[in-house]
Specification:
By secondary structure, this protein is an alpha/beta fold. It has helices at 18-25, 34-47, 65-74, 83-91, 108-116, 127-140, 175-187, 208-226, 252-266, 276-279, 312-316, 404-407; strands at 4-7, 10-13, 16-17, 29-33, 53-58, 77-80, 99-101, 121-124, 144-149, 191-197, 233-235, 269-272, 283-294, 299-303, 322-324, 333-338, 347-354, 362-365, 387-391, 394-399. The protein has 2 domains: 4-32 and 280-408, Lyase, Ornithine Decarboxylase, Chain A, domain 1, CATH 2.40.37.10; 34-277, TIM Barrel (Alpha-Beta Barrel), CATH 3.20.20.10. The chain contains 12 helices and 20 strands.
């Protein structure tokens, strides 16, 4: 994280020492930097400043109310994928007229709620969904604005679990079907087709997939104009990649350089739905070494965080840099950094060279601000960790650590 820095031989987040946080709130704990969140948001905002644009932060990535509030204060809109996320945005005081609603399985109730809140538009992912939205809007005697999510069939060159814009993926409609959907939408009295949307995947570090995909949307926008369907908005989704290990992610300016000219030429308003780009390197997971165990083949650092707290390594084999809060002298050795959960998939790093660690050392699992806490669970009946927000020389608990009572809430004997 660009706001982690070394002072007095230990790691700080902004001006707060990570060991002081660990001491006060315990570990495991998620720690986010307000400065990093706002800087990343503004980096994108500046890069696209030459065109009219709206940055709809992807709520699923890190949905803590404080995080949403910070971004809302910067002017962000929001990309939601459930009624629960819409509720969160409302609770955080977000502007619901800047909300876009995606997802392949929107329920009747979710659609009703979103129409009631007068969101910016729905991202339609199938014809039956378009029909459902139309029916509900008619019943409510309101107009529902929509985008069709186009599946441009490009290879984003990323992990197959986070590829979404290939024809084999469940998302969106292919170019031909999308055109048909717009023709249908045009005939629906309570549907207003205002936008076209794509979201081709996540952790995309090159500009090429965007260039290719946007070109396919341009073709469709023009074809629609010929059919007298005039869209106002081009929504390119999210997916901008970040540095985890040694990737060379394109910068906001580099992405903008490829996308802005297209938007200008078509005279459309641009929507972006970044998630990871804003939150990923704005947060870390703090954890304490419980035991160091030397097996016949491996040296294990067993830490107090588990795959229930941060599942990305287990789920995608994702790389997270791991650094001690206070470095020890000595030679680097190979470690497997593992959690306490009863699964062999419960690891944060395998065969990783680390400076010597001993029992009680606090480690930072980096780049944990996106798809971290939001994917946590209570597996092994473990209370979920707290979330901490650092701002300058202060920190506050923005979600408290769960207790045993939280674990059985709602259950009956
Ligand atoms: C997940 C998601 C995003 C955000 O993706 P990132 O890779 O985190 O930027 C944006 N839009 C939609 C529709 C999504 O599902």
């Amino acid at each position: 994280m660009n706001v982690l820095n070394i002072k007095n031989n230990e790691l700080y987040c902004e001006e707060v020492s990570l060991s002081s946080i660990a001491e006060e709130v315990g570990t495991p704990a998620y720690v986010y930097s307000q400065k990093a969140l706002t800087e990343r948001y503004n980096e994108l905002d500046r890069a696209f400043s030459s065109v009219e644009h709206m940055i709809c932060y992807s709520v699923k990535v890190n949905s803590n109310l404080s995080v949403l509030k910070i971004l809302s204060d910067e002017g962000a809109g929001f990309d939601v994928v459930s009624g629960g996320e819409l509720f969160r945005v409302a609770q955080a005081g977000g502007d619901l007229s800047k909300v876009v609603f995606a997802g392949v399985g929107k329920t009747y109730t979710e659609i009703q709620e979103a129409i009631k809140q007068n969101i910016a538009f729905f991202t339609v992912e199938s014809i039956p969904e378009l029909e459902r939205i139309s029916t509900i809007a008619e019943q409510m005697e309101q107009t529902a604005r929509i985008a069709v999510r186009v599946n441009p069939d490009v290879d984003p060159c990323t992990h197959r679990y986070i590829t979404t814009g290939r024809l084999e993926n469940k998302f969106g409609l292919d170019v031909e079907a999308a055109y048909e959907a717009y023709l249908k939408a045009k005939e629906m009295p309570c549907i207003d087709p205002v936008a076209i949307q794509m979201h081709i995947g996540s952790q995309i570090v090159q500009t090429k997939p965007y260039e290719e995909a946007v070109q396919r949307l341009v073709f469709l926008v023009k074809k629609l104009r010929a059919a007298e369907i005039y869209l106002k908005i081009l929504d390119i989704g999210g997916g901008f990649g970040i540095l985890y290990e040694n990737e060379k992610p394109a910068s906001a300016e580099e992405f903008a350089a490829k996308i802005v000219p297209v938007v200008k030429e078509l005279e459309l308003k641009l929507y972006l739905e970044p998630g990871r780009f804003i939150a990923g390197n704005s947060g870390v997971l703090l954890t304490t070494v419980q035991y160091v165990k030397k097996g016949p083949e491996k040296r294990f650092a067993i830490v107090d965080a588990g795959m229930n707290d941060l599942i990305r390594p287990s789920l995608y084999g994702a790389f997270h840099n791991i650094t001690p809060v206070v470095e020890r002298n000595g030679e680097k050795k190979l470690y497997d950094v593992v959690g306490p959960i009863c699964e062999s998939g419960d690891f944060f790093a395998k065969d990783r060279y680390l400076l010597p660690v001993v029992q009680g050392d606090i480690l930072v699992i980096n780049s944990a601000g996106a798809y971290g806490f939001v994917m946590s669970s209570n597996y092994n009946t473990r209370p979920r960790p707290p979330e901490i927000l650092v701002s300058k020389d202060r920190f506050k608990v923005i979600r408290k650590r769960e207790g045993y009572e939280d674990l059985i809430r709602g259950e009956n004997e």
